[in-house]
């Protein structure tokens, strides 16, 4: 015996009952879809978030803060950890001297 025989109806009355049950089930799914569409509309009507700092400005600020932190780190490393003055980090002659030491010319 196949499983399909359980789903088959034996009379016209059973067929009508089955159709009515499917219609009721269908209406509940319609109600569920209406609830979902109402939720979507509610989501669409929510307040739009406006960013305090735009993304392009965030990227520029990131680049600036990265450069400032690199200069500050080099100044602390050269002035505090090394024997030089912190202001000498911004001079070109200091960097040529450091490069010469690294390359051992």
Task: Report a brief summary of the structure.
The chain has helices at residues 4-7, 12-44, 55-81, 92-103. By secondary structure, it is mainly alpha-helical.
What does this structure look like?
The structure is a single chain. The mean pLDDT is 78. By secondary structure, the protein is mostly helical. The chain is 72% helix and 0% strand. The N and C termini lie far apart (94 Å). It contains four helices and no strands. The protein has helices spanning 4-7, 12-44, 55-81, 92-103.
Structural classification? mainly alpha
In N-to-C order, the SSE pattern is HHHH
Residue share in helix: over 70%
**Low-confidence segments:** none
In terms of DSSP E residues, the strand content is: under 5%
Cα Rg: 38 Å
The count of β-strands is: 0
**Anisotropy-based shape:** rod-shaped
Measured between the Cα atoms of the first and last residue, the distance is: 94 Å
Tally of helical runs: 4
Query: Could you describe the largest sheet, including whether it forms a barrel?
Result: none
